[in-house]
Amino acid sequence: MSLSITVSNAQIKNAKTETVKIYGHCGMCEKTIEKAGNLKKVASVDWDKDTKMATLTYDTKKTNQAEILKRIALAGYDSESFLAPDAAFSKLPNCCQYDRVNKTAVEATASNMTMNSTANSNQTIPANTEKQEANQLNTVFDNYVAVKDALVQTNGTNASEKSKILLTTINAVKMDKLAMDVHMVWMKVLADLQEDASHIAETKDVSHQRDHFMRLSKSIYALMKVAKYEQPIYYQFCPMANDGKGANWLSKENTVKNPYYGAQMMNCGKTVETIK
Question: What span, in angstroms and rounded, lies between the C-alpha atoms of 158 and 201?
């Protein structure tokens, strides 16, 4: 284990370390696998190209082995638990396209899970279970809006506090309870959601918060396009933000209240899409 990995692990709280097999070939695979699995102060992955074994160290209060391996699978690499999508595998460079010896086993497991799910569908399910599962992302969106409202007020202290709550709700989402289309988007945006929410939470500098709010909004937009929310969501755009390049945000109301300028240019912008 390199010094950098050791230092990274030391920064992870509530740390748990496990070893798992992840299939791959070369040094390029190593970089891709570790980049996909690593999450600042949350998860660290150290993969050995000779043994194909990966050492996972992660904060048990913020993530788990399954979430790490799913991110790695989305990058194109099979493990003993999760199979990479064929499209992700096919995009790997030729030198990285390893023999998928575990594909049959993983597909069989997935098939069994589907059969079990179908068999269990006849069982009595609490009436509010489906609603509770959907509400996971409703809560994430509600707390995103709270951060937005704080930035509209140019209140860095409040934005920081609201983003801490947002980060908690992001980390509390149970991915296995999400519908498949939502699940796939969630895995793609999770790392960015956590990173940007963390940056906003860790500072009271409104300028820095707004920089990360731009990126946060892109991830929330991708998520809410596939998730169901109980009311219309308004996707809005300010042409002046981001040094004149423009920036978007999401709101529960059609009236423009600009989170990038606040009182300076409160009504600068327009609604460019309504998500229903």
Answer: 9
